[in-house]
Structures are given as structure tokens and as C-alpha cells.
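User: I'm curious whether this sequence folds into something compact or stays loose and floppy. Could you predict its structure so I can see for myself?
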Amino acid sequence: MFHLEGELEDREFLQNLIPNYRINLLDAGNVETPKRFHSDLQQIFGMLKCRGDKNAMRKYLHQNRQYFEAIDVETYQAVREFMHSERVMKDMKNSRKGTRINMCKALEDIYEEGREEGRRETAINLSELGVPVETIASAVKVSVKEVQEWLTGNAGPV
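Assistant: Here's the prediction. I'll summarize afterward.
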């Protein structure tokens, strides 16, 4: 890994300070058989195989629901980082040790927030096109009052 150059005496000195350990690297996103791992890595690598395919992800989470309903903070943080979900998954690194997180509930909440945001954006776009509020409410399947709140900016954050 290091290309030590210079005088022979300097190279030998530096070689004695740097241990020559063997390092095995693993491409976490391309693990063919996650079942070979008998730890939390099995589920993390399984999720990574489903990354980019929401139907496969839902199926995987459903098949492993019991596990994902109570994962530890460290595993949650690893999933958050590996899946590049820092924007949508809360940072839990300051949680108490031993805290369990219901990842299924967290992902369902994220999904529902995304649907709500989509409904709101659709309502605003339809309003800008001159579509009546009642028609918008029917189209996005919410009450007229809720659409009016979205359009006036009085609705809470999504």
C-alpha cells in the first residue's frame, strides 16, 4: 500500500513502524449471498440488494419484519448511512444505548410523508391551473378544508 522511497536506511526504519496487516475488503452493495453473514450485516446487506427497487424493499422488509421492528441504534445508523438516507431518516446516534427502533414504522412514516408532500404539490399545481378546490380535494383524496389550508400556506410542515 505504501511506496516507500528514499535511502535504504530510511525505508527499513519506516517499514518497521508500519505493520503489514492483511485487509479483506467487501463491496457491501454487491454481496451475492447475505445469508452467509450471521449478524446484523445479513439484514443490512439484504437491504442494499433491494436499494433502488421499492417493491423488492417492501417485500424484504415484510419478510424480515420481526427483525426490523426492533433494531438497535447502531444498526439503524449503519442502514441510514449505507442507504444514503440521511435526509429522510432521523439521526439517532445520540439515543441511549440499548434503545430499539422500529424501522418498519420509521419507513412507513417516511413513505406517508412523501405521499402527503406529493398530494400537497399536486393540489398547488392544480390550483395554479385554475382547477376548483372541490375538484382538487376529490383528486388528491383529502378534505376541501385541507386543500384550502395548503393553498393559503396555513398547513403544518409535511
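Summary: The first strand starts at residue 71 and ends at 72. The first helix runs from residue 8 to 17.
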